[in-house]
Amino acid sequence: MQITSERRLDDGVLEREFTLGRIPGTLWTPASAAPVPLVLMAHNNGLPKGDARLMARARHCAAYGYAVATIDAAGCGDRPRSAAEERARADLRRAMRADQPADEIFESFVAPLVERAVPEWRATLDALLSLPKIGGPVGYSGWTAVGIRLALVEPRIAAAGFFAGGYVPRAQRAEARRLTIPLLFLVQWDDEGNPRQRALDLFDAFGSKEKTLHANMGGHTGTPWFEVDDGNHFFGRHLR
Predict the structure, then answer these.
(1) Angle 124-176-87 (CA atoms, 0-180°, nearest 5)?
(2) Does 3.40.50.1820 match the CATH number of domain 2-85+115-239?
(3) pLDDT digit string (tens) for 64-123?
(4) Cβ proximity of 182 and 208 under 8 Å
(5) Shortest CA distance to 111 belongs to which of 40, 152, 72, 167?
């Protein structure tokens, strides 16, 4: 892992940009002398690690006392995409805007993203846990499809918060039944890109004995800010 830049924010959080091979990432760590738990934070829909909403959540989580890391995984953010991936992404947007069936487009586009992203997240986790002042256990927050697979194959993840789980590849919907860690699942009741009933069905499918559903009115980007605080408290129960 190579640190490419760093700066100290007003609240004392240290923000560092890094690269791990071809993987670009950002790490936020609180001003703490003791090792702190780590939260991996992945944005839905492959948006970049520098997305304003993601960065605000990450900084708030770090100020609360966690190390927080995000990356641009394969096919996400500013990472190169093939012409086929760009066409699939455009086809998916058009189908969803027109309220047309999008399952097969979604499957062909997102399922390969999950397969490519999870190994990169695991490699990043290895590198992060080798740094001083970052310890376990580990939490995951964000993109549901990647989070299901990552939490299933990565025993170091002790709890997870998932966002907007309406559209999830078939493989991850099946894997959800095998997931047993504590879960916090956020649903926007009027999410234009994630069908409500699918999200509720996915929540029902999770095998975890401790799982909590938070549903709020509004569209995809309308998640209330207090859910960020609730997420920090959720991780506090399971990572400390």
Answers:
(1) 65
(2) yes
(3) 999 999 999 877 777 887 787 778 778 877 877 777 767 787 788 888 889 999 999 999
(4) yes
(5) 167
